[in-house]
Q: What sequence folds into this?
């Protein structure tokens, strides 16, 4: 089942002097099994958008469909727990969810909430902790003593342990070192290709979009500016400029070379091909 | 969570908003004293009329006032039940089986209810029309005369202002934590009692951790900028009494005096 937004609007503090329209009649269709990046400036509505996916926010107008569940504005939506089992959402700040005495217990908290026995949940938790790149010595540590990057890994493990079919990550690599960020992105990609999970990533890092994602959704001031595949997105840099996004290094290099008179088509998105073309041109 | 109205500042442009916060605090205290002068329903009608007038002048919406009072509804119901069970004077108003409801119980409850509603309204009026920062300055000014007897006016004012400043931040934080835990299957609405207790625990621990973290960060930031509570400081914002503030004084003192006269002569 694809994820569909139909004319979804969301207004914070509706009917008060503080009312703020964060999403304005959004229409969006996200196909199954894709890894989609959601990009946009701060305050553009990205986080509001992703919080609709597991019904943490209910639209003030319009309706959406996620994982066979229909969420309609102004209706009492019951039994959202099952939806939250299907759609795992990792928040921007991992501190908001860590509370147990040990990391294993904390990661096992999610699965247990969805009715998995303690023993089984502990096993799942251990596996999830290893998946995010922490070794067995972390199992009995307190999640509160970890560094920012490690906390983030534990928070991600906490969601992975629930084994959701849709994985939504709000800036999952913030606070990680570049190497750690790459590892996590590779992990999400693996979950996407091998386990056929639909992955949505809110990110500011265009390198990650280029290297790991299939599609790109650009959000601007509560509207969907565009929803295109990666190839189209990076071919035409004018839309990047319009959305005030700094393109990845390869694209910048491509543009510089073009300005210097190199004949390089816009379809080139990777460094090896770019290098080959440059070599060919120079040899001429 | 974000819709909590109690104690929230509403940025509007009205006479009451422009008034000197010191004048507003003193008037609030005077009005609170007025409420406790027992002149029966006539007195409450007068105080109530003054408050309604003030609410209208402050351009506050009825909806907002109602939401500010909502959290107290539970307490009002609780008081009603206790009063009906305990007070056995006056005449019997209603008999249900063996159980009798006496007139005094109802009258007493009405009194308490009216008092509470008036009190909430007065304090809401103050907090809704006064910026937290102005309130702090006013509190500091009003406490300054007591400095000579060892009241740390500045420290108290700073503590109050920090506390006020962090109410919305912590509410927002609680909201985010709730969402993060809801994403992990915590069900605050539909779960069983035991599940709910567990759910609350999963909210409190991160909230405490983040509060302490914030307190530490704030202390460091203040220290880094050379904050010293004992130092002599000047203010950017100077408070000054205007005509409207004197009017407010006259009205509230007049009201208090009037009620005292009413109490002494008529009743």
A:
């Amino acid at each position: 089942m694809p994820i569909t937004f139909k004319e979804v609007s969301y207004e914070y503090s509706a009917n008060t002097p503080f009312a703020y329209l964060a999403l304005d009649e959004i229409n969006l269709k996200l196909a199954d099994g894709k890894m989609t990046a959601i990009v946009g400036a701060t305050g553009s509505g990205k986080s509001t958008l992703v919080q609709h996916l597991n019904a943490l926010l209910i639209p003030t107008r319009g309706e959406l469909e996620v994982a066979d569940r229909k969420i309609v504005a102004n209706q009492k939506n019951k039994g959202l727990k099952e939806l939250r089992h299907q759609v795992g959402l990792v928040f921007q700040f991992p501190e908001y969810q860590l509370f147990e005495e040990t990391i294993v217990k904390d990661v096992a908290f999610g699965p247990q909430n969805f009715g998995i026995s303690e023993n089984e949940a502990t096993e799942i938790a251990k596996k999830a902790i290893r998946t995010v790149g922490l070794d067995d010595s972390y199992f009995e540590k307190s999640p509160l003593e970890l560094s920012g990057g490690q906390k983030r890994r534990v928070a991600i493990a906490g969601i992975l342990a629930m084994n959701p079919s849709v994985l939504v990550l709000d800036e999952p690599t913030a606070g990680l070192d570049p190497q750690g960020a790459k590892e996590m992105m590779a992990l999400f990609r693996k979950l996407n290709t091998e386990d056929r999970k639909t992955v949505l990533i809110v990110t500011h890092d265009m390198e990650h979009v280029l290297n790991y994602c299939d599609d790109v959704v650009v959000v601007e001031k509560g509207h969907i500016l565009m929803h295109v595949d990666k190839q189209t997105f990076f071919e035409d840099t004018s839309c990047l400029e319009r959305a005030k996004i700094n393109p990845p290094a390869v694209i910048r290099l491509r543009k510089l070379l073009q300005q210097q008179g190199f004949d390089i088509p816009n379809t080139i998105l990777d460094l090896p091909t770019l290098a080959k073309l440059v070599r060919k041109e120079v040899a001429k | 969570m974000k819709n909590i109205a109690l104690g929230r500042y509403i940025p509007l442009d009205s006479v009451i908003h422009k008034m000197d916060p010191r004048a507003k605090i003193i008037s609030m205290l005077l009005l609170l004293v007025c409420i406790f002068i027992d002149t029966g329903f006539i007195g409450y009608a007068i105080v109530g009329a003054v408050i309604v007038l003030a609410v209208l002048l402050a351009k506050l919406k009825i909806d907002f006032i109602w939401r500010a009072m909502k959290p107290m509804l539970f307490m009002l119901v609780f008081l009603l039940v206790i009063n009906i069970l305990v007070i056995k004077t006056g005449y019997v108003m209603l008999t249900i089986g063996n159980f009798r409801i006496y007139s005094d119980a109802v009258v007493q409850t009405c009194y308490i209810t009216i008092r509470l509603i008036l009190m909430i309204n007065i304090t809401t009026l103050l907090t809704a029309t006064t910026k937290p920062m102005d309130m702090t300055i006013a509190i500091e000014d009003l406490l300054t005369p007591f400095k000579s007897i060892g009241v740390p006016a500045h420290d108290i004012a700073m503590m109050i202002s920090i506390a006020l400043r962090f109410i919305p931040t912590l509410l927002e934080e609680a909201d985010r934590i709730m969402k993060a835990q809801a994403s992990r299957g915590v069900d605050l609405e539909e779960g069983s009692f035991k599940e709910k207790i567990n759910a609350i625990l999963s909210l409190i621990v991160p909230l405490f951790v983040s509060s302490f973290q914030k307190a530490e960060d704030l202390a460091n930031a203040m220290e880094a900028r050379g904050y010293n509570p004992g130092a002599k400081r000047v203010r950017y914002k100077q408070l000054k009494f205007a005509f409207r503030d004197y009017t407010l004084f006259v009205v509230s003192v007049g009201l208090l005096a009037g009620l005292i006269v009413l109490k002494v002569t008529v009743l």
About this structure: Chain B is about 70% helix and 5% strand. The beta strands of chain B are 92-96, 99-102. The longest helix of chain B spans residues 193-224.
